[in-house]
Amino acid sequence: MAQRIGRTPPPPGPFRPGFWRSPIRGPWLTSVFGLLLLVGIPVLFVTGMLSYAAYNPDLGPLNDQTPDKGLLGFYLFDWPTHPYWLYRLTQGVHVTLGVVLVPVLLAKLWSVIPKLFEWLPVRTVAHGLERLSLLMLVGGVIFEFVTGILNVQLYYVFPGSFYTLHFYGAWVFIAAFVVHVCLRLGRMTRALRSRSLATELRTDLAHTRPEPADPDGLVPIAPAPPTMTRRGAVGVVGAGSVLLLVVTAGQSIGGWLRSTALLAPHNRDPGSGPNGFQINKTAASVGVLPAHVGPNWRLEVHGNGPTLVLTREQLLAMRQHAAVLPIACVEGWSTPDQHWSGLRLADLGAMAGLPDAGSVLVESVQPPGPYSSVVLRGNQIHDPRSLLALRVNGADLSLDHGYPARIIVPANPGVNNTKWVHRLTFRT
Ligand SMILES: Nc1nc2c(c(=O)[nH]1)N[C@H]1C(S)=C(S)[C@@H](COP(=O)(O)O)O[C@H]1N2
Ligand SMILES: [Mo]
Question: What is the share, in percent, of the chain residues with pLDDT greater than 70?
Fold first, then answer.
C-alpha cells in the first residue's frame, strides 16, 4: 500500500519536479537569505517581547493587552525609566527592522517555494511533523509581518486585539523558528561554504550556472537559461531593503530625516510652534470635548487621606519641574526630545499622603475605552523626570497634546503617557 502511494505520480503543474526552473534557485541562495533572517528575527522577537514588558502588564488588567497569556508572561520585569530613550530605541528597531526585512523574507520564501509543492505532501510520520513545523513557520512569519505592518499603517482590521494576535503569533512562530534552525543550521552552513560570496558577486549572466542537485529539490532538474545572476538577486533584495530603510527610519530618528519617512502614516505635517510635534489621537477623535477640559476641569488626587481637588491655576502656582523627554509610540514613530514642565508625580503622591506610593492609577476625561487610563509603577512615579505635564516647549499644552494635563514618563511607551488626565489615585 505504502509503496503504491509512493509511486502515485504528482498532479500536473507545480507538483511536477520539472515545473520550477529558475537556475539560481538552490541551497546557497536560500542560505544567504536564511542567514540574514537568522540574525534579524531574534532581534525582532526580543524587541517585541520588550515592548510587551514595557506596558507593565503585571500591574493589572488596565495595562494588560493580553490577559490570558499565562506562562508566556514568565519573563516580565519592572520596565525601567533609564535610559529615557530606551523605548524609543527598542520599538524603533522593532518596527524599522521588521519593514526592512520584508524583501529578504519574500526572497527567502520564493527561494524555497518548490518545497511547498513537494509530492507526496506527507510520506512518513516524521516527514509529516516536519511539514507541520514548516506550516507553523511560514504561516507564523506571514502572520506576524502582516499584522505588524497593518498596525503601523493604522489599518485596524483585526478580528480581536492587535496586541493579543501579534503576541501569541510571535510565540507560535518563534517555536517553529527554533525547530527550523536546529534542523537546518548544518545544511545552511554547508551551503554557505559551498560557494564564495566574493565570486558570486563577480559572476555575470553568461557564467551563471545552477548549483549541483540538492536533496531538498531546490535546484531545478530542468533549469531554464538564466535571466538574472545571483549577484542580481541579492542586489535587488538589498536595494529593496535599503529603500525601505530610507523611507521608514526617519519616523524614529527625527530631525530632517523625518521628512524622508514616506511610508510612515504619521508623517503628516504636525504644524509649527511649541506644540508642533506628532499627535497620535486628537481630542475630537477620542471624544474629548472642550467642555471636559474647560474652566470646570479639576484634577482629583486620591491617596492616603482627604482627596485633593485642584484647578489648573492652583497646579501652575505650585513648584514646577522640567523634563526633556520624547514620545515613542508602539507604531515605531517617535518625537525628538520635548521640553515638558509641570508637577512631579512623586510630589503629587506625597501631597496625597503617599510619599512611597507603589503605583498610581491615571484616568483621563476621555470616555472609558482603550488608552483612557493606565497604571504606572513605583519606579516610574519616583523618577524625578516623571511629570504631570502642564506645558511643553514653553507654552501651554495644546488640546490635542493633552491639555489641561498629561503624563510624561521617561522610557514609557507613548500609549501609557495618558493625555487629558483628571484623576490620579496613588496606592501603596
Ligand atoms: N487619554 C488618552 N491618552 C493618550 C492616548 C489616547 O488615545 N487617549 N494615546 C496615547 C498614545 S497611543 C500615544 S503614542 C501618545 C501620543 O501623544 P501625542 O499625541 O501628544 O504625541 O499619547 C497617548 N495618550
Ligand atoms: Mo501610541
Answer: 98
Q: How many domains does the chain have?
A: 2
Q: 119 or 383, which is more confident?
A: 383
The contacts of residue 388 (CB under 8 Å, 6+ apart) are: 299, 315, 342, 343, 345, 348, 405, 406, 407, 421, 424
For a ligand 1 pocket test, name from 63, 87, 162, 280 the mutation site with the most ligand atoms within 8 angstroms of its C-beta.
280
Length of the chain in terms of residues written: 428
Q: Would you state the pLDDT for residue 267?
A: 57
Domain that holds residue 40: 2-260
Global pTM reads 0.95
Residues within 5 Å of ion ligand 2, judged at the Cβ atom: 280, 329, 414-415
- 235 and 89 in a single domain? The answer is yes
| Structural domain includes residue 357 | yes
- Which residue has the least CA distance to atom 16 on ligand 1? 280
In ligand 1, the atom with minimum distance to the C-alpha of 370 is 7
The three three-digit cell numbers of residue 252, written as one number: 524614529
Same domain, yes or no: 205 and 311: no
Instruction: Give a yes or no: residue 187 inside a domain.
Output: yes
For residue 205, the tally of other CB atoms under 10 A from its CB is: 12
